[in-house]
Design goal:
With 471 residues, the chain is an alpha/beta fold. The protein folds into three domains: 120 residues, Methylthiotransferase, N-terminal domain (Rossmann fold), CATH 3.40.50.12160; 242 residues, tm_1862 like domain (pyruvate-formate lyase- activating enzyme, Alpha-Beta Horseshoe); 67 residues, Nucleic acid-binding proteins (OB fold (Dihydrolipoamide Acetyltransferase, E2P), Beta Barrel), CATH 2.40.50. It is built from 13 helices and 19 strands. The protein has a six-stranded parallel sheet. Strands 17-14-15-16-19-18 form a six-stranded mixed sheet, with helices on one face. Helix 6 packs parallel to helix 7 and helix 7 runs parallel beside helix 8. The protein starts with a strand and ends with a helix. 44% of the residues are buried.
Length: 471
């Protein structure tokens, strides 16, 4: 029996691809093991969104090949590179990683991984022969609810990928070239998958895609212009989906991630407000507020539109926590642009906010733009914005003290509130006695930076106690 180990890197969308590969490996009778050293095949599911993620992916590939620097891997052990970096750079990498890698597969081969493994075991590659590349053009695959899948998340939460690809022309982003055009699943298939997950005991369903708010719009007879915000009053497949998910029996959250601001509507705001199972949390990457920068980035929105949208969201959904991300150091960005961004952040007081330093990505239009900024300028601007956000985050956290919140317990003594998505947001520290994987209601007694405390006065979080004991 072939033993396979899989290393999954990058975002939640990549994690779903990994889960599908593991599901198909199980279906084919192969055994999946956690330790790469004990596997007959190691798959590294890579990311290449920015240069640092590509470097991390290559680092993992070399670590597997060198068995953590101690020795080269067994001669009969195979190493397969999958995912976004493979899809994007396989032609270059098959020469650079000639000795390390036995095959490259792309995004559309996640359901074909078992026969590919058998093929590379059946055929010995010559010493001068490059590793085979199984990628066939631009990605077109999209998973359905009956696709074999083995979840790699904790039992209490799961991701559902509702669409693949992206139609947006953002000048800094390589994703459309990697994952292809936007293509949506049907509402029925997503609802069927969600029902099954709830039956399995899942307490939180996270809806993901490259642009969740474009869900279903690719099937309209009159397709929306991706550069024009949608009719604000029109219902969409996403609003239909949310209402049907909300109607599923059970106690669980539905979380909406990766929403593009151009496709929000008043009907979507109204739907979230009227669906109690939809978490009072939205992820809406804005990237900038200056019209100058939004134009250079080709973000299909304007400063006035964004300001009005945030106002309408907060007015229409009481208690909503808004998460966003911004990019600083983009080519052509001026000090005036950063001043405007900081003023907007100070005025809006986002509950959750992340900042990226611009990364000059090969193959993007922004990479060829004039006005590329030095690393030290990007770094200074990043620190300026993050210092401001830390002050705002402290104010947001302080406002929670004394409130009673519903949380989901992630591990002993650690939970997340409705305003915190898995892996990217803050935590709530609480007594270790609350069962893992269950909802609980806790009173917030204090805060530390981005995290909240639901502990008796003076009590230290359990995870910190354990860390001290281990030292």
């Amino acid at each position: 029996m072939i033993k396979v180990s899989l290393i999954s890197l990058g975002c939640a969308k990549n994690l779903v691809d990994s889960e599908i590969m593991v599901g198909h490996l199980h279906q084919a009778g192969m055994t999946v093991v956690p330790e790469a050293d004990n596997a007959d095949v190691v798959i590294v599911n890579t990311c290449s969104f920015i240069d640092s993620s590509k470097e991390e992916s290559i680092g993992h590939i070399l670590d597997v090949h060198q068995q953590r620097g101690m020795k080269k891997r067994r001669q009969n052990q195979k190493l397969i590179v999958a995912g976004c970096m493979s899809q994007r750079f396989s032609k270059d990498l098959k020469g650079e990683l000639h000795d390390e890698v036995d095959a490259f597969i792309g995004l559309d081969q996640v359901t074909k991984v078992a026969p590919i493994i058998r093929e590379i075991f059946a055929r010995e590659r010559g010493a001068d022969e490059e590793p085979p590349v199984f990628i066939e053009g631009r990605s077109t695959y999209i998973p359905d609810y009956d696709t074999p899948r083995f979840r790699l998340t904790p039992r209490h939460f799961a991701y559902i990928k509702i669409a693949e690809g992206c139609n947006h022309p953002c000048t800094f982003c390589i994703i459309p070239q990697i994952r292809g055009r936007h293509r949506s699943r049907t509402v029925e298939s997503v609802v069927a998958e969600a029902r099954q997950l709830v039956r399995e005991g899942v307490k939180e369903i996270n809806l993901i895609s490259q642009d969740t708010t474009f869900f279903g719009m690719d099937t309209w007879e009159e397709r929306p212009n991706p550069r024009t915000p949608v009719d604000s009053s029109r219902g969409t497949a996403l609003t239909t989906l949310l209402r049907q998910l909300n109607a599923i029996e059970g106690d669980f959250w539905i979380r909406l991630l990766y929403t593009h601001p151009a496709h929000w509507s008043d009907e979507l705001i109204r739907t979230i407000a009227e669906c109690p199972k939809v978490a009072r949390y939205i992820d809406i990457p804005l990237q900038h507020i200056s019209d100058h920068m939004l134009g250079l980035m080709q973000r299909e929105t304007s400063s006035a539109y964004i300001r009005d949208l945030i106002r309408r969201i907060r007015a229409g959904i009481p208690g909503i926590a808004v998460r966003t991300t911004f990019i600083v150091g983009f080519p052509g960005e001026t000090e005036a642009d950063v001043d405007e961004l900081c003023a907007f952040i100070a005025e809006t007081k986002f509950e959750r906010l992340g900042v990226f330093r611009y990364s000059q990505e090969e193959g993007t239009r922004a990479a060829k733009m004039e006005g590329q900024l030095p690393k030290k300028v990007k770094e200074a601007r990043w620190h300026r914005v993050m210092k401001l956000q830390r002050e705002i985050a402290a104010q947001v956290s302080a406002a929670q003290v004394g409130r009673t919140l519903k949380v989901i317990v992630e591990e002993p003594g650690v939970a997340r509130g409705e305003a915190d998505a898995p892996d990217i947001d803050g935590r709530v520290y609480l007594p270790i006695t609350v069962p893992v994987g269950e909802f609980a209601r806790v009173k917030i007694t204090g805060f530390e930076a981005y995290d909240l405390l639901a502990l008796p006065a003076g009590e230290e979080p359990a995870t910190r106690k354990i860390a001290k004991q281990a030292q």
